[in-house]
Amino acid sequence: MWSSPTDLLVQTQARAQLDRVQHHTLLVEANGRTKVAEDQLRELQGNFMK
After folding, report:
1. Percent of the chain predicted with pLDDT > 90
2. Which residue from 1, 3, 30, 46 could staple onto 7, CB 3.0 to 4.6 Å apart?
3. Does an H or E element contain 42, and which?
4. CA–CA gap between residue 2 and residue 10 (Å, rounded)
5. For residue 2, what pLDDT is reported?
6. 32: phi then psi, degrees, rounded to nearest 5
7. What is the DSSP letter of 50?
8. In angstroms, rounded to a whole number, what is the distance separating the alpha carbons of residues 1 and 14?
9. CA-wise closest residue to 35 among 43, 25, 46
């Protein structure tokens, strides 16, 4: 099936938007994991200092 240039543009823009959303989601997840790791590290350091 042949797509019009407009269809192709819309598909390309939709794909780019999806890529941005997925990238943002990965960043948010990574930041969350970093915070958990930092909290665990602080807890370990606190236990070590006791």
Report:
1. 86
2. 3
3. helix 5-49
4. 14
5. 77
6. -65, -45
7. -
8. 19
9. 43
Lookup: tokens for 11: 């598909």
31's tokens:
């930041």
Can you tell me the distance from the alpha carbon of 23 to that of 16, in angstroms, rounded to the nearest whole number? 10
Rounded distance between C-alpha atoms, residue 21 and residue 40, angstroms: 29
Cα(21)–Cα(19) distance, integer angstroms: 5
| Residue 37 in tokens | 């790791």
- Euclidean distance between CA atoms 12 and 34, whole angstroms: 33
pLDDT attached to residue 3: 83
